[in-house]
Design goal:
Blueprint (H helix, E strand, L loop, with lengths): L8 H21 L3 E7 L11 E6 L5 E6 L3 H9 L7 H7 L1 E5 L9 H6 L6 E5 L1 H11 L20 E5 L6 E2 L6 E8 L5 E9 L2 E6 L5 H4 L3 H14 L3 E7 L17 H14 L2 H4 L4 E4 L7 H11 L7 E2 L7 E3 L1
Helix pairs in contact: 2-3, 7-8
């Protein structure tokens, strides 16, 4: 008869401690959010305009941060193996709602053109943005009225949800919550930043914005003040922010956008409220680069050369997922 080897109690105790030590590491290794870029550029290429899916790690209930390109981006994601289902199925079943930063076409054309084949869901935005969508796009003339108010016939495919500035609201069909902050995108035009929360983790997505100094505004300063406690607590897991033009673009021709120099100026303002060391732990995802010949290469190089804060910049590719730590 074969005797069983009995593990000494001390060894069992040490093994348990080792396993308990590994559990938090394993949970951290799973990440906090998954990002699927459906469109990354700030113009010209209508098949690759601003749109980013976001979901908590391990979940398939995505919200869509802007929606310049949808179907083509989903096809690219399926081709790359990011999603298993056909693009139309992912659109209908896994995209649970839209957060639209402002009503320029490069940020919502995909949602508008795909509305006939989409499922019922909500559009979240500041009231000024929803009014433009209702009155100028889903108005029965530019396009059928797929909203839930406005010019009849009202098809009620989408439900308009107005976000009050700085007030958190649940995103229907997901485990996420959103808080909107107004931004300045050129003289008299309002854009928005969205602070998305899942449990105690956050991601910040900025729509188009100019720097405070050029816009004669304090909206970015107010945003950084709201964000600073999350950076200090280690709860902010990523910042999406635009860099539309290289530094050669004159301030008078920024049209409510950022250059690498202005982006780094704004990040320095946030670092001043926290510390550079803490901000280095937050990936900075660069969006909305305008693909005029040579622009993207210059923007990347200028960010690299002038990055005295030592920040981590990520440059998203259409259909390639990003797992935030």
């Amino acid at each position: 008869m074969v005797s069983m080897y009995k593990v000494p109690s001390a060894m069992r105790f040490l093994a348990c401690l080792f396993i308990l030590h590994l559990v938090p590491w394993a949970l951290r290794a799973q990440g906090t959010f998954r990002v699927v870029p459906l469109g990354t550029k700030g113009g010209l290429d209508e098949s690759n305009l601003s749109a980013y899916l976001l979901a908590p790690a391990g979940r398939s209930d995505y919200l869509c941060l802007d929606a310049g390109t949808l179907y083509h981006g989903l096809q690219k994601a399926v081709e790359r193996g990011t999603f298993s289902g056909p693009a139309h199925q992912v659109l209908r079943e896994q995209v649970k709602g839209y957060l639209i930063s402002h009503a320029h076409l490069d940020h919502l054309a995909g949602m508008i053109s795909n509305a006939p084949d989409d499922a019922n869901k909500a559009i979240y935005a500041l009231p000024s943005c929803l009014e433009i969508i209702r009155d100028h796009y889903f108005n029965g003339q530019s396009w059928p009225n797929f909203g839930d108010s406005g010019q009849p016939p009202v098809l009620r495919k989408y439900r308009y949800v107005a976000l009050a500035a700085s007030e958190e609201m649940p995103v229907e069909g997901t485990a996420m919550f959103v808080r909107a902050y107004p931004l300045s995108h050129g003289s008299g035009y309002e854009s928005a930043a969205f602070l998305v929360r899942h449990n105690t983790h956050y991601v910040l997505y900025l729509g188009d914005t100019g720097p405070d100094d050029v816009e004669q505004s304090n909206r970015l300063a107010q945003l950084w003040a709201a964000l600073a406690p999350l950076v200090r607590a280690g709860q902010l897991k990523g910042i999406f922010i635009e860099a539309s033009y290289p530094n050669e673009q004159p301030d008078r021709h920024l049209y409510g956008h950022l250059t690498p120099r202005w982006l780094l100026h704004e990040m320095a303002a946030l670092a001043h409220l926290t510390t550079p060391e803490l901000l280095r732990k937050v990936p900075i995802i660069i969006t909305h680069m305008k693909p005029t010949e040579g622009n993207e290469t210059r923007i990347r190089e200028q960010l690299r050369q002038e990055n005295t804060l030592g920040l981590t910049f990520l440059f998203p590719e259409q259909g390639v997922p990003i797992d935030l730590p």
